[in-house]
Amino acid sequence: MKKPTYFKIAVIAPLLFWCLQFNAQNLVPFSPRYDDAIKGDILLIGNSNVGLHPTNPYNGNGTNDGINAAVYVDIDGDPSTFNSSSADLDVPSDTECYQIVYAGLYWSAVVNGSDPMSQIKFKIPGGTYQDITGTQIYYQNASNNNNSNTYVYYHDVTSILSAMPDPEGTYTVANISSLVGPKPNSEGLSAGWSLFIVYEDPLLPSKYITSFDGFTKITSVINETFPISGFTTIPVGPVRANFAFSTIEGDRNYTGDYLRLNGTTISATNNAGTVIRPGNNFFNSSVSYIDPVTNTPELFTTRNPSSSNTLGFDAGIINIPNPGNSLIANGATTATISLGSNLDIYYYYFSAFAIEIIAPNIVLTKIVEDDMGNNIGGQTVGLGQPLNYVIGFQNTGNDDATNFQIRDILPINIVFNYPTDLVLPAGVTVASYNPATREIIFNIEDYLVEENDPVYEIRIEAMTVDDCSELDDACSNVITNQAFATYEAVTSPDFVITDDPSISTNTGCLITPQATNFFTDLDCAFIQEETLCGTSVDLTAADGYDSYSWSTSPSGTPVIGTGQTITVTNTGTYYSFNTATAPCQSITQQYNITLFGGGNITNPAIPYADEVVTCPNDGKQLPNIFLCGANDSRDILTNIAGASSIIWEQLDESSCAAVTDQDCANENPSCTWNQVATGPNYTANTAGQFKVIINFQGGCFAEFYFNVYQNLLNPTVTSTDIICNTPGSITVNNVPSGYEYSLDNVTYQTSNVFTVTTAGIYTVYIRQTGVDTNPCIFTVMDVQIRDRDFTASVNVTQPYCNGELGSVHLAANDAEPQYFFSIYQGGTLVNSVGPIVDNNYTFANLNPGTYTVNIETEDGCTHTEDIEIIEPPLLTVTAALTTPLTCTDGEITIYPVGGTPPYYYFINSTTDFQSVPQVAVTAPGVFNITVVDSNNCSASTTLSVDAISAPEFTVSSTDIACSGVTNGSITFNVTNANGNTLQYSIDGGISFFSSPVFTT
Questions:
Q1: 144 pLDDT exceeds 70?
Q2: Which strand (E) or helix (H) includes residue 46?
Q3: Is the domain 606-711 a CATH 2.60.40.10 member?
Q4: In what order do the strands lie in the sheet with 828-836?
Q5: Contact, 549 vs 543, CB < 8 A?
Q6: Which of 637, 592, 599 is nearest to 468 (CA)?
Q7: pTM above 0.85, yes or no
Q8: CA 643 to CA 621: how far, in whole Å?
């Protein structure tokens, strides 16, 4: 009677599920939550907050719809929580060079409780609970919901995790709203949480990672399909992909639920060969992860409680089985994920997909060095101190880049002279420079950002400002600089990176994002001279501070104003106290107010003049500035901030007659003056006669004159750095005979070439020989000589399969041509190349073994390193018929040896595969077996299976002659066993014996 009973149950159950989904479908379309291409991977942890015991794990095979006494899981011992569970995060990185770039927290329940669904508690490793208010993804809340109010909530916790110095450890989620006790519905009670994480690691392959959430109820008649695009897989080699998910209501004992990729049903088999997620019961109330050691899916047990059966809650990550790239091919650009069921229902709300792609990955770095080449990022600097910004770039991806640009905005509190302060490698040019915004854009030739190219550097030689007056705005004591990269992929034209920010190191670790320095505690007196012209004058403090306070006393009391600007009507001294939040520095500004008139305003060019002469006609002083060289200049700072305008003009010397006395300014009213600048400061860099007009509030003004003379000698300098055994040099060019040269303005030489053995920032001094009185000394400043830090990059590519060959890519970093590369094995030269201009080379087709590689340059740099090409063990396979095909099915067991696990098995097919080595045999025939390992290496064997015929036998019996006599017997007479091993039974198959004779 049991069979008809089971038959009836099997027929009724699908009809019931269909009715439930028909009456309650308020679905939320799935949409991307995270979508990016990075070098990194995905992780997912989670746990259930409803079970059969508050703290003990449940490892039975029950289903949540069969449980009528659900309780809260509560493991934290905290009276402020009514349920709680935890899970441990372990980032499988070999180094500490990773960073969390995204983290999303999800929680859900089949039936909500009386507590708010949106509010939970979240505890990070080493922390305390913090309240989280989530965003609703779905809430059923329907009148015809059959007493099930399924919901899902989400919260972005990226900022919480990324702020942690070490995100690894135990995460706890508490107070998930859920009903417990007797179930009010047919589906049962279940609740849980999952934390999805994307981390970036420059040592990992490039991946396209996308996550998306929504809500759907999967039944036997409602399925869901997710098309995924926007990527291009690698052109050769195994295509690897991972899949993450979160669902609720996937029961352990109800089968039929499945996951498919590109039409192939997926299962998950662990390292021991146990199927932990069957293809026909994929969502089976478990939490799984990918073991980083074996690269196989396993049940995730570092949870509390560590239940193997989470009673309706499912979460995890699996690696997509892709033997021979049969599911996802090389060069693929799309994939389709399908969810469905033939029986079991489940609520699906989260998916993530990560697949290795071909893409460039340009690591852009920006560091700041002193004149000795030391990294001084994060350190304090002084006024007028040299700074060297070094922009490094390297393509660490597996595709070439194109249309690469670097955008950099230089800080306002440094002095940068364009283009003389730029040191560009070959192949880098300036696309544009805007002196007003200080934005500079570099174009980089494609040949510098090909796959496996070494690091290249752009150097910007600058110095901090040398005057306190340029540091009065808020946060001007902080010098921050960052570059941004924009580029495209060659193979995948849809792959575009825009304004990817630089990081502060070129060692591969992802740490401090910007090159930052701080001025030391500045002992600056911010004093401004202001003029009262009329009844009042407005005083305006520097921009950007959090608060202002004004006083007539340096003590700050009394307070006469709290805005950025105040109006004063009396002369005297005023103070503004400008307050900023650390690390920005607060300052005090002093304003000396005097009445306009008399000699209280002096010619602002006088402090910068080489000589000041006096006109005999009117006694006025005339500053003269002498510029030595075509590139020489002089900055004139008025230190007058209260003027309504300051206008700088140059005389059109053809517009009027020249003065008869060179010590007098030309004040002829018929002269024409042309405006050349406005503002408090002016840079004098051309010869001519100038005047500055200072206008004050109230209509007062002052006019001052100065002259600029210029010797147009234009010396240039070429330099070479100190590289290994070769000293540096400075060579002065474009100077005629009759000049001498110096690096210290003390000792001069006639040679225009200097040999430099000490790194530093040099100034070259040039003067005419034989001129002893006030000679014009020409200077070329900021000539940097670096002591290059020569390094070598050695990247070994191992063979995937036994019998294949390996390669090694060598690169010389921070050196100059020519280059020499060689490779030896056991002291015997295998191959060599050089001298060549390219600083990198690949030795291909290397047999397994140990080699010594050498990198040399003409400057005496050398690098020697031993490498090993490791051949994977040969993949072989045998198969045996471990259970013969008789009256019942037989079984073949496949035995792979070598290669790289895990293994996948193709049986009489090139498309259909399985992940377990046992093959059911239902009929005789030839079995063509191919085993493919995780590197797509393969081995094949063939096994013929014949059906074993039933034994040929008769049964004879001897009756009992008389009552009480035991001389009866039953005998099986076997005429042909046909290869079967036989046992015998006369009680209907209950008991079997090896003897064919039974006596009674």
A1: no
A2: strand 28-48
A3: yes
A4: 828-836, 819-825, 849-857, 862-869
A5: no
A6: 637
A7: no
A8: 22
